[in-house]
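Weekly modeling sync, notes
Attendees: S.R. (lead), two postdocs, one rotation student

Agenda item 3: backlog of single-chain predictions. S.R. asked that every request posted to the team notebook include the full sequence so nobody has to chase files. The rotation student volunteered to paste the first one in as an example of the format we agreed on. Action items at the bottom.

Example entry:
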Amino acid sequence: MLLAVGTFSLMDAGLKTLSVRYPTFEVAALRGAASLPLVLAWALSTTGAAALFRVRWSLHLLRGGLGIAMMASFVYAVRTLPLSTAYSIFFVAPLMITALSGPFLGEQVGPRRWVAIAVGLLGVVVLLRPTGEGMRSLAALAVLLAALMYAVSAITVRLLARSDSTQAMVVWLMAMMAVGAGLLAIPHWVPVRAHDLWVVAGVGIAGAVGQYTITEAFRLGEASLLAPLEYTALVWGVLLDATLWRVLPDAVTWLGAAIIVASGLYLLRRERVHALAEHP
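Predicted structure, as returned to the notebook:
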């Protein structure tokens, strides 16, 4: 799980680098296309080709659309936002997943978890700084949109996991992102420069390794124990921001991030307590 978070962070650094040189949808398309050959090779070597076509196409198409919107929003945001700030806002996604699991999956969300969700949203308000320029930042709002798309996509994954393989979900997400975002990028497509090809390749490799390792992590370990490790992305964000772009989070960013992370950890603890109560 730690390796997955680290490689995904390196991928995001590559996306941030590309975002200042190429249109948003083009970067999203390059992300999908660069990882597709690697995840396809992994899928074919583990489950074979037949499993990739025994799928629920309607949900895959929905997830593909959500994936394009998520990636495009995130790429647009990190063009101007530091990675650490973008990660801090994106950490609200697990809270959104819990909030959406009630109406969409019929799961019970108790009052304590609703309080944790409300506290986490308060942390987002702190990060957006409603009295300053933050609330007017389209980049910050784009991260919130990306987090919402991620949360809805996670709900579709729970539904797809009942019938489709993990390999099919990963392959078709990358394929739809490459094709869908590519079609949207055509009107403003910028030829990829030769010296940027290594960045594109790095994004593809890091994305594929991250996808494989996070899949293995959740296959081998308990989700409630692994999920808190996702917050180590903030450490990676700070290190990458300081090393590559010479920026560091300010006090308000640290405060907002701390509130969101604390509420997320409490939420995970409550879910673990409920799981133990149902299956002692």
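Discussion: group reviewed the output briefly. The chain is about 80% helix and 0% strand.
Action items: rotation student to repeat for the remaining queue; S.R. to check formatting next week.
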